[in-house]
Amino acid sequence: xxxxxxxxxxxxxxxxxxxxxxxxxxxxxxxxxxxxxxxxxxxxxxxxxxxxxxxxxxxxxxxxxxxxxxxxxxxxxxxxxxxxxxxxxxxxxxxxxxxxxxxxxxxxxxxxxxxxxxxxxxxxxxxxxxxxxxxxxxxxxxxxxxxxxxxxxxxxxxxxxxxxxxxxxxxxxxxxxxxxxxxxxxxxxxxxxxxxxxxxxxxxxxxxxxxxxxxx
Length: 216
What we know:
By secondary structure, the protein is α+β, with helices and mostly antiparallel strands. The protein is built from six helices and eleven strands. It has helices spanning 2-19, 24-30, 76-79, 84-94, 132-145, 197-214, and strands at 49-50, 63-64, 101-107, 110-117, 120-128, 149-151, 162-165, 169-174, 177-182, 189-190, 195-196. Strands 3-4-5-9-8-7-6 form a seven-stranded antiparallel beta sheet, sandwiched between helices. It has a two-stranded antiparallel sheet with strand order 1-2. A hairpin with a 3-residue loop joins β7 (162-165) and β8. α1 runs parallel beside α6 and α4 (84-94) runs antiparallel to α6. The radius of gyration is 16 Å and the shape is globular.
């Protein structure tokens, strides 16, 4: 059932591309500016360390890694995770009557957009590395630390390194970005179609990846 859902979502990515994504400038307008009191980005490095702001049940067991030199602020691509396309996709899947409240944050080379749903919080984050090689090293470290990580294979990974976890996360690496959709705070199923949190995380991931393909 899971593989069938992944295959359908992979085929549906073409329709997302045809529908178009919010351009980078529009996406910036769609989110509030990063807080002025955000801590400065971390110094270069790729060693896993404690202090990740992940879920309590431990997608990465409370660990993280800093992928190389950090930019001064989030890129236009990173800001897209709080833009119109993932918001529209989320409200459509869950049949929401209004857009959920969002809060965004930039720290340690990571832009995070939190969608506050009635059932719990949905976090979408983008870790920005100095280059693709650093991003892959960070991705590999995340996968090694993740609990019950399963690689996403075949058409379902859209040609990118990807894995999912049993608690409702999907992680993809594209270029110098590592995308993490964390639905672990949500119940096992949500919405009128009772979509699983893993399927929700995967579908939001492919929506954002489609935006990145259209606006590299």
